[in-house]
Structure formats: C-alpha cells, structure tokens
Amino acid sequence: MQDKINKYFTEVDAFNPANAEELEQFRISSLGRKGWMQDLLIDFKTLPSEQKRETGKFLNELKSKVERRIEHFKNVFASTETEKTTYTDLSRPGIPVTPGAHHPLTLVRNQITSIFQKIGFSISEGPEMEDDWHNFSALNFPPEHPARDMQDTFFISKDPDFALRTHTSSVQVRVMENSKPPIRTISPGRVYRNEAISARAHCQFHQVEGLCIDEGISFADLKQTLLYFAREFFSVETEIRLRPSYFPFTEPSAEMDISCTLCKGKGCNVCKYSGWTEIMGCGMVDPNVLDNCGIDSHKYSGFAFGMGIERIAMLKYKINDLRLFFENDVRFLKQFIAGI
Ligand code: DAH
Fold first, then answer.
1. CA distance linking residue 172 with residue 121, whole number of Å
2. Residue 16 DSSP symbol
3. Which residues approach ligand 1 with their CB closer than 6 A?
4. pLDDT of 253
5. Residue 64 half-sphere exposure, CB side, CA atoms within 13 Å?
6. Overall average pLDDT of the 113-118 stretch
7. What is the pLDDT of residues 131-167, one digit of tens each?
8. What is the Å distance from ligand 1's center to 120 Cα?
9. According to the model, what pLDDT value does residue 89 have?
C-alpha cells in the first residue's frame, strides 16, 4: 500500500494540466466517488491496526496535496480566462458608450429660465396637486367657469377641493402670498388637463409662468420684457404682436404672437399663411388677484405671462407631434444630444 501511495505522490507532483477540462478529469479520477483516493481508503480499512497510524498520516498528506494542486490550477485557469476576454485582442473595437442627454423639454425649459434669470427673475416652483384656491379662486375664476368642469380638470376623487393643477399660474398665487414686492419670478412645471391625446394635445404638458410686481409696472414693461425674450430665444429679427384676449386673472389680457420662425413672416403652412404664430398668454395682473394674495392693488401693479414649453420646443426644433415628447423613444431623444 505504501508503494501505491508513493506512486500517487509522484503522479500528483508531475500533474500539469493544459486546460480546465484536464483539471476536471484529474479531480474526478482522484477525489471523485469512484476515484483512486476512494480505492486507497478501502485498502486502508483492511490494514492491520499497527500500520494504520503511519499510513493514515501519508494518506491525509496525499489528499491535501491533491486538493492544493487542484486549487492552484483552478486559479491559473480562471485568471487566464478573464485575460483572454478583456485584454488579449487589443485591436478589437471598444464597447460603445452612448452619452446621456437632456430631454428636449429640459433643454428648452433651461433656455427659457436662463433668459429671464439674466434680467433678474428668480425661479419658483409649486405643487402639482393644487387646491381650488390656488388653481382657480384666487385667480379670479368665477364659480361657474368652465375650466372648473370635470371635463377639463383632473379632480382628486377623495377630496373635490384638490385637483392636478391645470396651469402654472397657481404658482403666482403662492409666490404673492409668501413674498413682498418687488417680485420677479419665473415658474416652470408640469400641468394636467383632461384632454384626448393627439398630435396637438396631451393630458400632461409643461408651462412656464412669469410674474413681475412692483410700483408703477405698466403694459410697456410687459411688452418690452416679452420682446426681449422672443429675440433672445428665437432670433434677433423676431417681431412680436399682442392681440387682445381674455383671462380671468389679467386685465387687460393679451395673446402674444411671434413672426413665424420658419418663413420669417412671409406665410407658410406652420403659420397657416398668416406670418404669425401664437406662443403665450399674458396681461396686467387683475387688481382682484393682487388683493386676494395680500398685495395692495392701490400701491402695486404687475404683469404676468404663461407659455407652453412643448409648443415652444415644437417651433424651435420643428417637431410636429406632441406625443413624441412623452414616448421616450431614443431615436427621437438622441437627436438633441449635441446641446443644440
Ligand atoms: N394660465 C394660462 C393658460 O394656461 C396662461 C396664462 C395666460 C398665464 C395669461 C398668465 C397670463 O400668467 O397672464 O392658458
């Protein structure tokens, strides 16, 4: 038996597998259930007891030698495996990394806010779930106004006093309630309306609201601020036009058009051959609204405006379907990577 053990010692020492398969073969033939180590143990049981001590010692040594050898080659093969996959062929093309990008709405929102920040406007935000006061009542909406209808507004079923805000004008109210004039602030955010989804309408979209309150603010300040914005955002040649309109929270109210970005006022199918495209609502803050929000309407006056970010982005990037902004199709999104 001792001879056999010696023979295996030499074999194990000489063992030098070429690959992981040979190593596995060796493991099975030595330590496996039908391997030679088992045979040796069976032989061992038949030995007279005075020999068992000495031979047992050798057997243990042999077994741990085999285990160490297997472990050693396992490590060797594992590291060459990773080397092979990661380093060996340096001429292989790298793994492509797609750079992340801002969503076009984020790009446009940032451009709009920074244009107003340059002339001293701060940025303010309010909650997307609003109460009736901030979204409607404080803004002078009469109780029977159609915007309060379930058809237009998503109400919260548990409490009819709460709804998803239908415009960012609600943030005006919060700012006026919580600060004193002079106020110059811009409020970007998401708004919701109960609309059927199409290329031109969606149940969620984004707006930017603007508010400026101080002593002696006039319609001329509104006009000049919006002209500055239009020329900074679109181009220096852009012209603006204000048309009388109606909003419950402004008096007088207007809608602002810009000269068509595509045909420069000559007439095309984007501006429906009028040469102008509407981009926002605006007006002088109604004195009732100032009073509702704790601002003395005899001392202060102000202007406000609100525009849809999607609409501005569609004009700027010539996108013709609103739904594209919300589908997160990377083929669409990656066109804006270059920080245009
Ligand atoms: N809140 C209006 C809307 O959602 C937009 C708007 C119009 C905001 C006139 C204003 C404003 O601040 O003065 O259609």
1. 13
2. -
3. 167, 169, 209, 247, 250, 281-283, 304-306
4. 98
5. 5
6. 98
7. 999 999 999 999 888 878 766 889 988 888 899 999 9
8. 21
9. 75
CATH number at 104-339: 3.30.930.10
- What is the distance in A from the centroid of ligand 1 to the CA of 97? 42
Give the residue-averaged pLDDT of 312-323. 92
With the most atoms of ligand 1 within 8 angstroms of its CB, the residue from 226, 249, 286, 310 to mutate is 249
Both tokens assigned to 27: 């493991």
For residue 16, report the distance from its CA to the centre of ligand 1, in Å.
82
Q: Which residue has the tokens 């092979």?
A: 84
Please provide the average confidence, as pLDDT, over all residues in the chain: 91
Ligand 1 closest atom vs CA 211: 12
Size (the chain), residues: 340
The residues spanned by each domain of the chain are: 2-85, 104-339
User: Stretch 36-63: mean pLDDT, rounded?
Assistant: 90
CA of 312 to the centre of ligand 1 (A): 15
User: What does the pLDDT read at residue 246?
Assistant: 95
Instruction: Answer whether residue 2 shows pLDDT above 80.
Output: yes
Q: Which of 284, 305, 312 to mutate to test the pocket of ligand 1 (most atoms within 8 A of CB)?
A: 305
| Inter-residue long-range contacts of 200-207, CB under 8 Å, 24+ positions, other chains counted | 200/322, 201/322, 202/310, 202/322, 202/323, 202/325, 202/326, 203/154, 204/326, 205/308, 205/309, 205/310, 205/322, 206/105, 206/109, 206/308, 206/309, 206/310, 207/167, 207/168, 207/306, 207/307, 207/308, 207/309
C-alpha pair distances (Å), 125 with each of 163, 174, 189, 190:
17, 9, 7, 10
